[in-house]
Every structure is written in structure tokens, then in C-alpha cells.
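Batch job 17 of 40 flagged for manual review because the log was empty.
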Amino acid sequence: MSSARTYQECTRCVMDTSDPDIVFDLAGMCQHCRRAGELLRDRMAVYKSGEYQIDRIVPRIRGAGVARAYDCIVGVSGGADSTYACYSARKLGLRPLAVHFDNGWNSELAVHNIESTLRRMGIELYTFVVDWGEFRDLQLAFLKASVPDAEIPTDHAIWALLYRTAARFGVKYVLTGTNLTTESILPQSWTYGITDWRYIEAIHRRFGSRKLRTYPRSSLARFAWYVGARRIRTLSLLNSLDYNKERAIQELEREIGWRRYGGKHHESVYTRFFQSYILPRKFGIDKRRAHLSSLIMSGQMTREEAVAELARPIESERQLRDDLEYVAKKFELSVAQFEQLMALPRRTFRDYPNGLAWLERGKRLKVLAQRYRLLPSQVGM
């Protein structure tokens, strides 16, 4: 994001100096791909041969769900990863409840994929529809804050809703479609705050105008209650499987009629617009770099293939224009008013009150608590 820095691209993955915190070694490799390599080696070993090995964890999930209507909760967006998590849970003989957060931005194809695929799998769906006036106010607050974290309102709500629903139904396991194979790299400078309610609340207090009465939220203390008192565990199911993105998509297309979107997380109109228009034009961020770099590190793509993909336009100019008009109208703005938001000086989460220090302390305390078996193991992604 800084124009003063000489441009550089990693020699192993395709991350570059659009991340202001990137650091390169003498060989030109960045810290992101080094860390991704360690995660794929060490954490995946836990999933493949440790307590989260598939033939160990599935019986425990079934056992914890005895006498319950469901034995696990699975978040579903209509995208490939979350759909494959539902599909895999069903194939493994689990009884999931699919939970969807409807923020008003679903594409028509996403609605089709969610409803038709879950019906074919015989999985019940619980959809939480947020009050659009509230959510519009919160999303606009993030645009006015001028940070690259404008997707956080959706991500936080999904996270909070999954735990809230698990507690409501007495379910002990939340399964997610997040995975190291396709998501091992994502700079903090590009997105921050999924679990930081203090940050979200601070931005809404400063730039918002409506009370958030229906918006799902969870503080760090509430999350600790879910994990400690209610003993709810999170499992990234796809990490326990041999997850290959392209093979999974082909299986979903063949077996349950799932249809492709053309981009990662493009099941949401706003996410498509955010990643194709707002991030690159205002912040100089092409989020494809993180997605493609993750695939490089997991061996599902070569660096040459990633470079070729980045040479293609993120989205067609016609689609960008149509999305701009649609998003501005849905926000009750003119295109000129939306572009005024785009022209605001760039900020980061560090310019606003946030709970990063508390989150870091919480992580350290959680590791200690798990070491002494005071909390259930939470390996997440």
C-alpha cells in the first residue's frame, strides 16, 4: 500500500509488496509462504494422524450428538468449500444442520446452490436473515472508516451465528469449510477483525447511525463461554480430508448439481464487487494473490499458472460497472456518492480502537488452558 517502497514479488509464491508488512529473505522468499509451509507441515499432521484424524473425530462427533436432532453445525454460503464440507459430513454419516447468514447480498446462483444441493443431500437448512437497514448501516460505516476490512461485518456475524446456533441446539461441534489447502495465506494488513467485536463496535459507533438489534455478535468473553462452559469445538473438516479444490468442485457438480461462480467467494454480489473493485482500486490489493499463493504452497497450482491467472483481468469492465451501479443503489447512494467514499484517505484497523492486544493474550491463555486440559482442543484452520 506504500508507494515509497520498491516493488517486489515473492520468488516462491505470488505475494508482493501490496502487503506493507511483507518481508523477504535473501532468496526473495516471503514470510507468508514460509509460514504456510510450516502450517501445512505441522498443523496438517494433527489432522492426518492426531486427534482430528477423520476415523477418530467422526465417532466422537456422532457420540456427542446422541439423542440430539443434529450432531454438528455446518456453516454454508453456497461456495465450494462450505458446500463440500456439508457434502463430506453427510458422506461420513453425520447429521449436520446447515446454517446460512443471509446478509442481503446473495447472488441468484448462490440461492440455487444452497437450496438445491442441501435438498439433494437431505440436510436441513437454518437461515438467519439480518435486518437489512441495520446491516446496510454497518457496512456503510466500514466504507466511511476507509479500511480494507469492509467484509468483516459478514465474517463476524457468521462466526457468532454458528456458535450461537450450536449452543441453542446443544451441539458440541461446529464444522467449517475453511482449510489450509486454499487459505493458508492472508495478510493481517489486508483483513482484520473477524473475532474483534471491539473494533467493529468502534467503527459503527463513530460512523453508524442505527442500533444493531438483530445483528449476530460475539465478544471474546462470550466466545470463551462457548468454548469453556458449553464445550463447543470447531473443526475445519476439509483439513482432515484429502481436499483438492478442483477435484472437489468436479465431484459437487457431478453428484449434487452444484454450479461454479467464476471466482472465490463470488457467491456474494458484494464480495465479488469488494474483491474486484474496492480492494484493487482503492487499496492496491488483488486478493487473488493470497488465494493463488495458498494453492501454490499446497501443490495444487504452479507459480507459472498463478502468474498467468494474475495477468487476466479480475473481472470484466461491464460486470464491474453493473455491480457498481447495483451496490450504490442498494446502499441508497448515487454512483458519485459511492466514489466519494472510495476517495477518502486510506486507513487501517490500527487507526481505530481494537482488541488486538486482548486477542493475542487470549490466544496464549487458550494454549495454556488446552495444555492443562481446562479447555477442549480447538485447532480451527
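Reviewer: the log was empty due to a logging misconfiguration, but the result itself is present. The chain has a mean pLDDT of 93. Unflagging and moving on to job 18.
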